[in-house]
Amino acid sequence: MAGVTDLYDVVDDAVVLHVHVQPGAGRSAIVGRHGDALKVRVAAPPVDNRANDAAGAILAETFGVKRGAVELIAGQKSRIKRFRIRGLDLDEIEGQVHQILADAEERVGEPRRKPR
User: Fold this and answer.
1) Which of 16, 31, 83, 108 is disulfide-compatible with 9, CB 3.0–4.6 A?
2) From CA 66, how far away is CA 60, in angstroms rounded?
3) How far apart, in whole angstroms, are the C-alpha atoms of residue 28 and residue 17?
4) What's the angle, vertex CA 6, arms to CA 94 and CA 46, rounded to 5?
5) 2 and 88 in contact (C-beta within 8 Å)?
6) DSSP letter at 48?
7) What's the angle, vertex CA 37, arms to CA 99 and CA 30, rounded to 5?
8) Per-residue confidence (pLDDT) for residue 84, from 0 to 100
9) What is the C-alpha R_g of the chain?
10) Of residues 113, 84, 109, 103, the one with CA closest to residue 30
């Protein structure tokens, strides 16, 4: 499996994740890689910081940390962002990112709604 260390940096006992955010998507999800960033689609529009907040919330949920442990540190008005995430096991971060990407890959092609 390809490396994922280009997707994040470890700084001062926290992970700084490189994220490409696509606002206004049909549904919110981590969908894989976008170059050297994790691609996150959010349903929220890029208005009044709503897309940034939605991206932070999905990262917190995905990594299993409280929302307050995720902080936008760069890219406030850009699609390319840096989020600092505190409270992660730094010895296991590479495995976590691999798993997140594998889970996103499994969801590719899934129907948006369950058939009735």
Assistant:
1) 16
2) 6
3) 18
4) 100
5) no
6) T
7) 50
8) 97
9) 14
10) 103
Cα 6 from Cα 37, distance rounded (Å)? 8
pLDDT tens digits, one per residue of 39-75: 999 999 999 999 999 999 999 999 999 999 999 999 9
d(CA 19, CA 35): 10
CA separation for the pair 19, 79 (Å, rounded):
8
| Positive or negative: CA dihedral 35, 75, 47, 113 | positive
Please report the pLDDT score of residue 2 as a whole number: 60
Report the alpha-carbon distance of residue 66 to residue 48 in Å, rounded. 22
2's tokens? 């390809």
Q: How far apart are the first and last CA of the chain?
A: 37
Structure tokens at 24: 């206004």
Closest CA to 55 of 94, 91, 87, 63: 63
Please tell me whether the overall predicted TM-score, pTM, comes out greater than 0.85 for this model.
yes
52 contacts 72 by C-beta, under 8 angstroms: yes
Return the exposure string of 90-99: e unless at least 16 CB atoms fall within 10 Å of the residue's CB, then b: eeebeebbee
